[in-house]
Amino acid sequence: MTTTTGAPRPAPLPLLVLGQGRDLASERGVECPGDLPAPSDPGLVERARAAKAALGERVFVLGHHYQRDEVIEFADVTGDSFKLAKEAAARPDAEYVVFCGVHFMAESADILTAEEQTVVLPDLAAGCSMADMAAIDQVQECWEQLAEAGVAERTVPVTYMNSSAAIKAFTGRHGGTICTSSNARTALTWALDRAGDGGKVLFLPDQHLGRNTYARDLGRPLEDCVVWDPHRPMGGLTPEQLRDATMILWRGHCSVHGRFSVEAVEAARRDIPGVKVIVHPECRHEVVALADEVGSTERIIRTIAAAPAGTAWAVGTELNLVRRLAAQFPEQRIAFLEKNVCYCSTMNRIDLPHLVWALESLVEGRVVNAIRVDDETSRYARAALDQMLALPGETGKD
Ligand code: SF4
């Protein structure tokens, strides 16, 4: 097979349905057992309103910034994952917390809410590809190999919020901390101090946030960082490399933010007069290094809101948020940084039919898609989350 230019055309890749075929382990579920309303039902908005009104104070709906507009409309509060988990914890009277976000966020909400509260994720297939890149077995094996190399006892784990409860619990068991994209600098400084001279940090699961925080925010050398590849023996590293490194970065990334490119930053600067580029720290280091501003979703929102009218922005984060920002701040000129980046596919699993199904089921007295973290995992994960809350100057507001 050739293209019109005569060059060989690459063989077509088979479409891989999430959670099926070779991808079995990467998603936590792809089916909804319930009787979902038809997406074409013109009464969906009314049904969602009616179900929410019927539940009243018994339900609290959380909406992550990357959710669709049709879902955000029904959120009692919007925010990033940490803000939403704290909001859930601050509503002890809500019997049900419906989390419009992804699986790890619902787990964190379950860990931080009271025993008698139930967290519901409207679609169990709303996972996170980054969180799925660090499985607990792989992380435990890594730790054993660090121990064999003689470095585990001098290593402190720092785990990004975007991780499974099991990985958070691993972090708690080994005296580490959770971090968010806003407090990663504080968390990393704490962990490096705790590790002491010659000590190390194992940063999970987002290599880009770890590298950007270490090199950009703390101004430390990139050469101190190595990447642990869980699919290679000994992480693909030699014992010498491990001993010499300060930052052991897990080989994980966000499948959305990892796609923003240097070429897109250069194109924005070329095509949009006076543009400022603002990106999320989950972007690759070379993209972050070229940006004018770097920050979490909450910080991106605050920065744009505070900018003088007429400022031009090219924004490198999830498209749903960028489109809402453009609508919310028409006095700014807001562009999406990269034309080849799509919505987060798992965030977008939560749609109005799933939300209606989850709410109407609660009205009928049926809890669907409850997210429950077992007690032991919850206890250690909570220790790591509490450590984050105890960090000096912890704001948690980004
Ligand atoms: S945007 Fe990235 S980190 Fe966030 S849920 Fe989607 S894949 Fe995960």
From TrEMBL:
Its cofactor is [4Fe-4S] cluster. It is an enzyme of class 2 (transferase). Iminosuccinate binds at residues 64, 81, 160-162, 181, 280-282, 297. InterPro entries: NadA, NadA_sf, Quinolinate_synth_A_type3. [4Fe-4S] cluster binds at residues 128, 254, 344. Binds 1 [4Fe-4S] cluster per subunit. Keywords: 4Fe-4S, Cytoplasm, Iron, Iron-sulfur, Metal-binding, Pyridine nucleotide biosynthesis, Transferase. It holds the Pfam family NadA. Belongs to the quinolinate synthase family. Type 3 subfamily. This is Quinolinate synthase. It comes from Phycicoccus duodecadis. The lineage of its organism: Bacteria, Bacillati, Actinomycetota, Actinomycetes, Micrococcales.
